[in-house]
Target: AcrR family transcriptional regulator
Amino acid sequence: MSGRKQFDISAALDQAMRVFWQRGYADASLDALGSATGLGRGSLYGAFGNKDALFGKCLDRYSSIYGAQNEQALAAHPGDPVRAVEAFFDVILGRIADPSVPVGCLIAQSAAQSLTLKEENSAQVRGLLDTQRQRVRAALADSSADSHTLDELAMFVVAVNQSLAVLSRAGASDAELRSVARLACTTVADTLARAASEDVTQS
Model:
């Protein structure tokens, strides 16, 4: 058919996403991206625009896959915020342990390289982190803790999630990562329990 693309754009985007995920933005050369996708520079530019535009599309792709999984986990236990956070970390650790994908997290990798990103991409990374924080915050909402405490806990959970990605790239074992996640869940549970106790005392 005239004008039809001779390659699968979705498959090429997935391969490019893996290159950025594994190497980071700065070290994801056009040669590496072309080799992974099977596309020459002209085809890459024609399909996705420049490197920054391709990177932005890869961030969107990553978020659509893994952000959706995180959201499902956090929403799966209404009324039980601690279990929701446990399910969230289970999904995170499952992805980290999956040998079919690069180690770590594309968002964490990109956040660490924010100074090398164009402002538009850097803002996109910040936005994805904020979306994650909002999702965690929503899962924590069904508790008696005050808004400030819940805001702090949501940021704490996101911070631990990012640290898990960094530690995994540094070679931390699954057992070590699960220990970190377990302690984080204990912190969330203890903080919410303390807030509930204070609420009862004041009423």
